[in-house]
């Protein structure tokens, strides 16, 4: 049987699907793969437009329980909620009520398939929302109003924090906070204590969210770099601090120490 590499799985919506894209010289998924090369495979299961109900329905179709020929899921990153938080409109049907969203997330992190793999599970808060920009684009695309609202989206991010706090086997990645803190720090004169958030029509200020969320929802290359900086410290404990850290935990040994066959036997494997 072929050697099986353990997996780092990115399970979510378009925010993970787009993590495979190369923008402005940076690719989130490639950055992770470069960090764990020869130790793990990074598997992208980002499904654009999906909410947690959709994700639950397809979970058994895209993930298998452990078994012969099935790679072990070692790390599981879950990023869902940006679509659940969409407001109900005649032109959009992605909304999942907050209570059901919480229940769905709990079902995902405790799903028997994932439980059988025993991965390290990371829950990621959906990012902030620039409702000012979202409104412009949604109305231009035929929606009667913005499909998402800043205050509602923030509630779904808080729900992720709450669920992570309730589950000691889950680690929180607070993408919302990291991006919003960056946006506030890079928006001169904006004081979040004095009123509504950046991107909220009541504040009327997009500020640096304009650079981090170009369409109001999806991440720019700069935002993905911030995201990667959050994830990076959680990967590599298996080999960090070892005597030969550079090559430790390789699935296949380094060529310098590999038990190679004698040259004539090695050539026979290619010559039949």
TrEMBL record:
Coiled coil region boundaries: none
Pfam families associated with the record: Lipase_GDSL_2
Signal sequence segment: none
InterPro entries: Iah1-like, SGNH_hydro, SGNH_hydro_sf
CDD domains noted in UniProt: Isoamyl_acetate_hydrolase_like (cd01838)
Domain SGNH hydrolase-type esterase, first and last residues per copy: 10-226
Protein's recorded name: SGNH hydrolase-type esterase domain-containing protein
Source organism: Chaetomium thermophilum (strain DSM 1495 / CBS 144.50 / IMI 039719)
